[in-house]
Amino acid sequence: xxGLQITRLxxxxxxxxxxxxxxxxxxxxxxxxxxxxxxxxxxAKGGRKLDAILFTHGHFDHIGGAKALCxxxxxxxxxxxxxxxxxxxxxxxxxxxxxxxxEGPDATDYVAEGDRMTCAGLTFTVLHTPxxxxxxxxxxxxxEEGSLLxxxxxxxxxxxxxxxxxxxxxxxxxxxxxxxxxxxxxxxVLGGHG
Length: 194
Known about the structure:
Blueprint: E1 4-11, E2 16-23, E3 28-32, H1 38-45, E4 49-54, H2 60-63, H3 66-69, E5 75-79, E6 109-111, E7 116-119, E8 122-128, E9 137-143, E10 146-152, E11 155-156, E12 159-160, H4 170-186, E13 188-191
Parallel strand pairs: 3-4, 4-5, 5-6, 10-13
Antiparallel strand pairs: 1-2, 2-3, 7-8, 8-9, 9-10, 11-12
């Protein structure tokens, strides 16, 4: 995509993919799934203002670094079904990491199927893809040169996300994968791990 810079950082103990996106000539950026190591993310964004944080879902390894990143005016996007995970380690599976408590920032905006939103000059379409969590979403970024799908843990390099954690559903995951099938054939997929 013309003028788009994408920086992938593998953060935290389970090496979650965090994506920093910025357009050439702009002084702002956005971050997808800042799960940990906020100091590395701040270093990667340089002097750019953080316009938005986009969560693909609410698990601890995708939200853990976000609170420390928020600046005045930063928008925080998550599906309403996963919003309770931002402040509850039993729901966000933070307990899995040696009983740690993990909290994210308050959401400023809830996303839903088909929403279009513009952050840091980039326009995304939201695809609701439950299965890994009830509020799992993918963010689709398209232009005349191609399409990128930020799929979180719905689709990853090594397969699909777990469905055995609280709120997971194998049946919903099957439906979501069927829904994503045409995108997986035409988009460059940037998953949550791998």
